[in-house]
Each structure stands twice: as structure tokens, then as C-alpha cells.
Amino acid sequence: MKEREYQICNRCIMDTTDSNIVFDEKGNCNHCNDAFERYETTWFPDEKGEQRLKAIAEHIKTTQKNKEYDCIVGLSGGVDSSYLAYKAVKLGLRPLVVHIDCGWNSELAVKNVENIVKKLDLDLHTHVVDWQEMKDLQLAYFKSNVANQDVPQDHAIFAALYSYAVKNRIKYVLSGGNFATECILPKSWGYNALDYKNLKAIHKTFGTRKLKKFPYVTFFKRYVYFTFIRKMNIVKVLNFIPYNKDEAIETMKKELDWQYYGGKHHESRFTKFFQAYYLPHKFGYDKRRAHLSSLIVSGQMMRDEALKEMEVEIYPNDSHIEDMEYVAKKLGVSLDEFKKIIRMPNKSYKDYSNNEALFKLGFKIRDYLS
Asked: Is 260 in contact with 98 (CB distance < 8 Å)?
């Protein structure tokens, strides 16, 4: 099969490291074309958005006034979730803040969480995922040689957060997911973190212990039980404001003693290694392209700035070794063994049982009903 000729988008910086990328006659890619199509129906960074958000907040406060908490927020200590907590308080909401500790928190992330709940006078519940189970599952994922190594943490975070919402009879889950910084993310670069069937299949193949305490959520529990029986609502607050990453950081520095950690999702040392070394070196793509392209679409960055940022090496002069050793040691394997695992042939999530067809059908039904 002939190797595809390299091409980069003329408008954002997505390129042919995404094997499924398509370019139009102007040289613009399908990712930014799709993002601009969704712009007006997804992101409302104007007065109308502010009015809609105030109406949503008032509805939450009115319908949940007799409860201890009227909403729930998952707080990692990163930019999006931290600013979400800040905005929730500014809106007059009474959130229960939940932090899911998967074993990889940096000291800076922990400090950010502490400062936020203290400054905003919020109740914090920290859920510590059983480390032995998490370690076994994450090592199983590395042995599976799939790209989406962030699934074990992401799945645990979503599952635990939804469980706390149900436990505390909270109907409104505030999400830090947003269009402004996340409108572009190629499907070929990862897979749905909520596919529990896929997670189980990978762990069954490579794991060594049972997952008795690991937080999990099935397709039917998430999209049927939580949505239609428990009437849970996911509210993406940041989509109703002119969310600007740099401005949010400056606000939090001044008002919350918040500190930046250097990169999207780098509040986790594991995620930093995964995104900055594992993915580029093993699979050939760099998630910074998607993150920076999202900022280009939302008008927060010029294309030339993004290209210059891509030239910066996150791990110059083999400095990744320190984080690689750290990850290997935490997972209970030697550095040589870890390197050997990473050098194994690449696999796809499709090489293991999954519920992709069910998710596609479910999303089609959801979109039709919407």
C-alpha cells in the first residue's frame, strides 16, 4: 500500500498523522470544517449564552432548593474543571465537589484542588480508586498496545462521579467539557472511555487480579438508567460563556492561588507521559495538534503561534526517561520490561471485544430524539 503524501491543513494545524483526515479544495481539513459547522449550535460566547446559562442556573437552584447540594462537579485541579467550579459558585450554585484520585496526581494538582475548595468554601469528597486494581488494569492496557491508555482513569472518573451524583440524589452534573478548547479530536486517535465491554476484554486478556472495587459504568447504566430513570442532566457550563483558556488561568491565579502545570491534562504525571511521549513515539501523533487546532477555531490562537508551539519539545534530550521510569516503577515493572512492552506491535481497540456498534446506534437515536 502506497504511503500517503504528507499534508497539513491550511487553516488549523491538523495533518495526515490522522489517517482519516480529509481535505477540501481549499486545503482545509474535515476537522475544522466540522467544528465551524457546529460552532453556532454548540458554543454561545455572547449575551444570549449568558442569558441561557443564568436561566439554567436559576432552574437548578429552584428545582433543587431543598437539597444539600444542587449540582456536582468533578475537580481534577486542571484548567477546565477548576474554572468550572469557580463559575458554578459565581452563578450561585451549591455544588458537591468530587475529586477522583487514580494514583497519579501531581503535588501541584493536589494543591490546586485544596486552594479551590478553601477559597470557594466548597465541600470536597475525594474518592481514592483502589491502587492495586488500577495498577493491574493500567498495566493490562499497556500490554494490549492500544492507543487509548487514558481509558482506565477516564472511565473510573466518570463512573465514580455519576455514582456520587446518584448517591446524593443530585440530578445535575456540571461538566468541564467544552467547545472552545476541545472542538477537535480525531476519532482515529482514541476510543470511547465509557465502553466497559472493551475495558473488561482488555483486562481479561492481560490482567492478573479481579476488579472488585474499580468504579465502572455500563452502556445501559449510563444512557438508560442515569438518563431516563434517575433523570440525570449533564450541563456543559463553559459552552455558555466566552471561555478563554488564558483569561481563565489569570483569573484563577489572582482569585484562587491556582498554579499552571504546563500543558493540557499535565496535572497528571501519567497523562503527561502518555500524551507527550507514548502517543507520538509509538503511534505517530501528537495530541497538541488537536488541542491547538481547537484554540485556532475558537479564535484564541493564530495558526503561526500554534506551529511555533509544536516546535517546542516537551521532553528534550531524552528527558522522558525520568517520567518513564516513574510510570514503570509505579506499575511494578522494570524500565527494561516497560520498554519491551511499549515496543510490541501496535493494536487497535477493535482487536478486543467492544460495544462500538451499540454506542453508534444509541447516539443515532439520541440525535434523532434531539
From this structure: no
